[in-house]
Amino acid sequence: MQGAASGPGTDQTDSAEQQKNYRYAINTLFTLLEDAYPLKFKRAFPAEEDLNRAKRVWFQSLKEFHPRRIVKAAQKALDTSKFFPDLSDIRELCKLRYDEVGLKEPLQAYYEACYAPVQSRDYHWSHIAVYLAAKQTGWMTLRSEEQRIALPIFERNYEIICNRVLDGEDIEADIFQGLEDTRNKEAVRLADEQAEQALRQQMEKQGIDPDAGRDAFIKMRKQLTGK
């Protein structure tokens, strides 16, 4: 494939290998489309220049997905599409669908993790991904934090692990936690803002000026939120 850049890599060897894998995936994608829809393919890409330009554009749009998933999406498109699939169709087929790989939706998995009687790998989990996401999130977080706080953290970990399942990668590798802390703090901040807004409205209904009666506002907030 001409003009394609490589996906993210940690060194030159990884970058070269990833570039090779993406080249293979994109070329395979277009070969499958050409074999399945020869006339439509020729009309869509009448010249070699058109085909190479399309490969570069499709690569840029699809490089967020694992090369293996791109090939699978192309194969699935041939089985499910009545018409010549375009880039948006392939992108949609690349996205994670939990039920297709025998996984629960995030909220169902979250409840399974929260209410599991044991925290052991040997428990009869619906899928090991639920256990791994719960372990990565932290059992204490799942059991002690409100859903509005714990669910976004669990959901992020679960999605990462489920994507690894789909891509055939190591599902037990550590998950980078830097973004999780940011998400957690942001979730808390938004929840606090919503709670404070509701409290202000409640005080106004009672004829209390939240700004003038700051002491009363703080006292009521402590009573209602414990903060």
TrEMBL record:
Domain of life of the native organism: Bacteria
A GO biological process held by the record: DNA replication initiation
Pfam family, one: Phage_lambda_P
Protein name (database record): Uncharacterized protein
Organism: Endozoicomonas montiporae
